[in-house]
Amino acid sequence: MRLFDHAAATPMRVSVREALAAAEPLANPASTHRAGQRARAVLEDARERIAAALGAHPTEVVLTSGGTESINLALKGTWWASGRAGERGALVVPVAEHHATLDAVEWLEREGAEVRWIGVDAHAVTDAAALAAALPGAALATMLVASNELGSMQPVDEVAEATLAAGVPLHLDAVGAVGRVPIRFAETGAALLSVGGHKVGGPHGAGALLVRRDARLEALHHGGGQQRGLRSGTQDALGASLLALALEEAVAELDAEAERLRALTDRILDAVAGLAGVRILAADDRLPHIAHLVVEGEGGRPAQGEALQFLLDEAGFAVSNGSACSAGVARESHVVRACGLEGVAPLRLSLGRTTTAEDVDALLAALPAAIARTRALA
């Protein structure tokens, strides 16, 4: 099977697998005996390395179980903290965010939060002017660094400038962007930034929320008070060290891999641009490893993304018609709808370290027939 779904999860790096296989058992890093303190040393070394890779201070690194927990902690924790201060304000949220953000925000909305939804353009790029106009009285603004489906880069600098001027904390979802484009937390202007290990060749179930030292945040759960009281629980020293290793390697190879992968995705987009009824949605300024397109139906019949995904899977290509489905259930892409399209078959092709030119050649050879059969099935 040729993997074209690295944006969902990229295979664990060889170095990470080897480090995992060679790892010795670690004690609880909160224990005061020597075994515990050895584990503590591993943990804090990993925290320092994660901070260095992401341009943060070690005290700003709150280790989590992954991107979803990091996003939930950022959004719910900030909103709860604003209420505790007697200033509970609105949440400013673009409509094309990842479901980890949308579902958390909709839960908060049921709890009484005011949500100010911000539109996107035909490339899923957030309307920065509309977001800035929605900031007065807000408790938090959140935004992707880049669309996890289309790959379109978002106006982070413009939005950060507006949030700083308004005194509103900004959360950036960098889960899909870290290791693909440079991320230096101290330079973003954000108060909070989420990352996950499985996007950079690290372990599943390991991630971090970077929390600026002046950010006000309530914990989601409580216990031993670890990590500034923001994320209680026995910390996974081994998982943190594996995450640090993956981030270090991803950052070190970023420039070379970005150039290589952009050349491959450009080949895909150039090839499909000549196919009738196929539209490229991503903006020119996009993540280097994502090629996103939509297939239009024929004769007034909608094209089905699930059919296109299934046909390519049968041909030996693991692809996606959006972000990874929830609980194994495929959903119509809310991002494509937000771009103003319905009745089309989205196809997200995301490349990674293991993708070769031969893989792309094989995909391009199989794609026209899969598109034709998708339309026929409709």
Automatic annotation (TrEMBL):
<dbReference type="InterPro" id="IPR015422">
    <property type="entry name" value="PyrdxlP-dep_Trfase_small"/>
</dbReference>
<dbReference type="Pfam" id="PF00266">
    <property type="entry name" value="Aminotran_5"/>
</dbReference>
<keyword id="KW-0663">Pyridoxal phosphate</keyword>
<keyword id="KW-0411">Iron-sulfur</keyword>
<keyword id="KW-0808">Transferase</keyword>
<dbReference type="InterPro" id="IPR015424">
    <property type="entry name" value="PyrdxlP-dep_Trfase"/>
</dbReference>
<protein>
    <submittedName>
        <fullName>Cysteine desulfurase</fullName>
    </submittedName>
</protein>
<keyword id="KW-0479">Metal-binding</keyword>
<dbReference type="InterPro" id="IPR015421">
    <property type="entry name" value="PyrdxlP-dep_Trfase_major"/>
</dbReference>
<dbReference type="InterPro" id="IPR000192">
    <property type="entry name" value="Aminotrans_V_dom"/>
</dbReference>
<comment type="similarity">
    <text>Belongs to the class-V pyridoxal-phosphate-dependent aminotransferase family. NifS/IscS subfamily.</text>
</comment>
<feature type="domain" description="Aminotransferase class V">
    <location>
        <begin position="4"/>
        <end position="363"/>
    </location>
</feature>
<keyword id="KW-0408">Iron</keyword>
<dbReference type="InterPro" id="IPR016454">
    <property type="entry name" value="Cysteine_dSase"/>
</dbReference>
